[in-house]
Amino acid sequence: MKLATAGAERRAQIVSAWSFDVFDTFLLRACTTPDGVFERTYELLDISRSRPNVSTSFVQHRIQAESRARRTAKEKRGASEVHIAEIYSYFPFRLFGLSRGDLNDLVEAEFAAELELCRANPDMIRQYLDMKRAGNHVGFISDTYWDSERLGHLLRACRPELTWDFLYASCDHGSSKSETLFATYLSEQGIDAASSFHVGDNDKADIKGAKRHGIHPRYYPQATAQLASKFQRETALFELLCTGAPSRLDHGARTLRRVVAGRSVERSPAFHLGLTVLGPVMAAFDAFVARRCEDLAGNGRQVALGFLGRDGFLSHRIWQDLHGGTASYLEMNRRVSLIASADTMQPLVDLLGKVFKIDAPTFHDMLKIMPPKVAAFFAGCPGGIASGEELAEALPGLMDPAEIVGLGAGLRARLLAYLRHAIPGFDDCTDLVLADLGYSGSVQKALRRVFDLEGIKIRLHGAYLMSLDDAFDDLTEEDSAAGFISDLVVTPHVKRMLIRNVALLEQACCAADGSVRDYDGGAVLREINPRPAEQVALAAEIQAGALAFAASAGEIARNYRLDPHAAPDVAARWCAATLARLLLLPDDDELALLGTLKHDVNLGTHALAPLLDRQFVRDQITARGLSAACTAAAPPMWLAGSFAALSPSYGYLYVLFGANRLPADVFEERPCERVQVGLFRADGSATMERVTIHRNGVGELRLRVPLARTMAIAVIALPLAKFAPEGLLHGVTVQHGDDVRDAAGSQEVIGIAADVLVYAGVQQNGGHYRTDTEDGCLLIPVLPMTQEIAIYSIAITSLGASPK
What we know:
The protein is an alpha/beta fold.
C-alpha cells in the first residue's frame, strides 16, 4: 500500500503529523484471528496442563470477560474503554482451578502471547520511517486494553530501534477513536487536523473516526470482503473437520496469505483463486514432499523424485521454481501402469471394475485390442453399454490370459525405457519418491509389480497430498506411503467426502496435454485432450496464481518472521480446511467460475463428465431423500458444488453429512399424514389410492406414488387443496425398477418437465402455486413404463398450515 506519492520535500510542506493504528496495521499477529492471542495465552499457562483440551472454553470466557468489563464500564463511567486487569477481573477463576490472586499471572501470560505473536509490518515500517525522515510528527493511536507503557514495550520488542513523537492508548484516556481519542490527540499535540493523516484497518474506528475529526484517513484493510468470507468458512470447516485441534494458531499461514494477496496486482478471478486458495495448499504440499525426500536420504541411498502426471503437473512446476531441476515429471497413469503390471487377468479386472459405464469403442481405446468375444459381449448389452462391474465379472471368459500377458509385457518394456529416459541415473537409484495428489497409491502399487517382474530393486515411496490410508497396508516392508492430509488430520469419513469431490482439484492442477496412452523409445504417446480450450486456459490461469503465491511467499514469510510450515501437523490441518472450503463450500463467484468445467475421466477415452449439476441434486433429494442424495455416485463429479448451487444451506448440510454430523432423525423424512390421490387410465376409468405424506428436516413435503405397469395409469391427480393449498413445487421425478425396492433405490432419476404438468383449479407462477377451489389439484402425466414398477415423487414446501 502506498500512502503518498509526492516526494519527501513536498510531503513535508503538506503534512504535519502521521498517526498509525497499532494492531493489524503496524503490528500483525501470526495467528488466524486476534483471539489467537487468547489461545496462546492458555497454552502458556499451567492450566493447559492441569486442564488440557479446554482452550476453546478459555478463549470464549476471555471474550465474555471483556464484554462484561466494557458493559460495566459503560454503565459506571459512561465509556467502555478498560484496562487488561479490569477484563480479567471478570474471568471465572474457579472454573479453571485459579484464584483471584492469579489475575496478574493471566495478564502477564497474555502479554507474553502478544510478544510472541506480534510482528512489525515491513510495509508500515517503511512508511513510518519515511514520514519521520520528512520531519513530520509520527506516532501511534490505538484502541487497546494495553496501557501506553505496555504498548510501547510491545512496539519496541517488534522493532527495537523504533521511536515516536506520541503514543495514545484508549484505555489510558477512557475513550476510543470512535469517541474522543482523536480530539485528545489533536489538542494535546497541537496538530492541525486538516494537515494530518491516520493509517488504520478498521473502517469504523480508524476511517470514520478520523474523518469525523477532520483527519485524512488512509485505509489499510486486512483482506478484501471476498477473502475475509473465505477465511470465515475455512475456520468453520477447521472446527468441524479437524476436531480437537486449536483453531486459531497457524504459525502465520493466514497472515502470509493476506499479505501476499494484498501485494498482488489486480488479475482475473481464476488467478486470484490460485493465489489465495490453491497456491497456499500446494506450497505446503511442496514443503511436505521436501521433508519426505530429506527423511529418506542418507545411509548411501540415491533418492530420486518424480511427480506423477497429469495431476502432478502444478506440483512439479512449483518444485522446479523453488528447488530447481531436481525432480522428474513422470507421465504415468492408472490405466498404463496397471496394464504394464499385468501377468495375469486380475489387474485388468481390477481396473475395469472401477469404471461406471463402458462400451466397445471405449474398451478398444483402453486396451488397443478388441477380442471377438468381447465385441460379442458388448453387442448383447442394452445399447451396447455395460457397467464396468459386469464387464470385469465376464472378462475371464472373454479373453485368453495369454493375450493379457503379451499386452502387459510389451507395455512394461516401453514403460521402463521411458522411466530410464525421464529419471537421470535411474539404474543407480535406490529409492524413488512418487509425488501425486493421491489417493490409494494405485500407480505406486502397479509400478511395484512392474519392478518385481523385471527384477528391479528400487524402493518406492508415495508422497500424497491426500491419502486413503487403509489402502496402504499391503505395501512391502521396503516401500512406504505417506499422505500430507492423512486420516490422522481428518477422519476417514471426511477424507472420502473430500475425494468424492476432488475432480475439481484435479482439473485445476492438471497438465494441458492429453493423458498418456503408450511410450515409444522413451517418448510419451498421448491421447487427444478432450477438454475445451477455454477450460485448459482457465486451469492455466489458476495455476499462474498458485505459482505466483509460491514464488513470493518464501521471501515475505522471512521478512515477516512467519513460518507456516514449521509444524507439519498444523500445516496439514489448515491445508485440509483451506482445500475443504474450496471443494465443499464454494461461494457464488467460484460456482460461476468453475461450474462449467468438465472432468476428463482419463481411462483412455474421450469422455467428459460434468463437474456441476444442480438439477441432479434437486431430483435426487425429491426422489430419494437428502442422505441418499449425499451418497450419490458420480457423475456429477463435484457433488458438493452441485449441492451449493442448489443453495448455501444445502451445501452445508452436505458437509455435515460427510462429517457424520447430520442426524437422520432430524433431517430425514417422517410420515405426517395420508392423502388420497387419483389414478386415471387412458379409457377414463379411475381409482383412488391413499399415499403417505412425509416431511423432512428442512420442512419440505414428499409424496411417492408407486405404479405397476399392469395398472395402465395415464395421469396422477394430486389433490393439492387437501394438504398444501399454497406452496412451492420443487419438482416431480420418476424412477423405474423391476420391483418397488429396485425402483426406490435407483439413482437413475428422471425429472418431469414443468411444462407438461397441468394445474387444475390452481393459480401458478413458476414454482409457486395457490389453489382456487377445494378441488384444486396437480395433474401429472405418466411416462411410458420401461420396467415393471415406476415411482413418482413430488416435493413441495407448503406456505400455509403444514400437515401434522
